[in-house]
Design brief:
Distance between the termini: 46 Å
Strand content: 25-35%
Strand order of the largest sheet: 3-2-1-4-5-7-6
Radius of gyration: 16 Å
Oligomer: single chain
Structural class: alpha/beta
Largest sheet: 7 strands, mixed
């Protein structure tokens, strides 16, 4: 029997982690007022809320019904005003027309995408020409790391390196791929960690 103790804030995200902050500061440089923004794996909705400070239309999707409820609750006013939409959906089959969004973000979610190659193609489908995708990961592969290997097996995760994400994005048809690595201390465990942020253009 394995007992896994998880802080709900880490499941859905508080938006305060240093990695998220760094990636948000990076992507916000690209966000314009009239841009359509999609946050894949929107979790608690904190990133959706922050994007609404920059853009007049933000959508969020999540596979988890609980996450959708939490995100919708946080952004209810924007939803009522027609500025925000939160739906339960899979990245593999998103309920949007081709070329719907100017910017798409994925914070701490690509680990769990069912088929990342095809899912990136689906992401590219709903992204406008010259649109931008941002992927933010708080984990990079650590060969021989027992703890990471246990988590990967337990949670069914796939952890990608910067080279792997670069190749996957290019294979899906993206270009101008930029990878940023940042090293520091985890705010919870105080362990040394390497964070990865990747930006690409359609």
């Amino acid at each position: 029997k394995i007992v896994l103790k998880i802080d709900p804030g880490h499941i859905f995200g508080t938006g305060t982690h240093e990695t998220t902050q760094l990636c948000m500061e990076l992507i916000e440089k690209y966000v314009e007022k009239d841009d359509m923004v999609l946050d894949i794996g929107c979790g608690s909705g904190v990133n959706v809320e922050r994007f609404l400070e920059k853009s007049e239309k933000v959508c969020g999707i999540d596979y988890s019904q609980l996450a959708v409820e939490k995100s919708a609750m946080l952004n209810q006013q924007a939803i009522d005003e027609g500025k925000c939409e939160i739906v339960q959906a899979s990245v593999s089959n998103m309920p949007y027309d081709d070329e719907s969004f100017d910017i798409i973000t994925a914070f701490e979610t690509v680990y769990f995408w069912p088929d990342i190659g095809n899912d990136l193609k689906e992401t590219r489908r709903v992204l406008k020409d010259d649109g931008i995708i941002l992927i933010c990961n708080e984990a990079v592969p650590k060969p021989g790391d027992k703890r990471q290997n246990e988590l990967v097996e337990l949670l069914g995760m796939n952890i990608y390196s910067e080279d792997e994400l670069d190749e996957l994005l290019r294979q899906a048809g993206f270009s101008d791929v930029l990878c940023f690595l940042n090293e520091g201390r985890d705010s919870v465990t105080n362990e040394h960690v390497t964070w990865l942020c990747v930006i690409a253009r359609k």
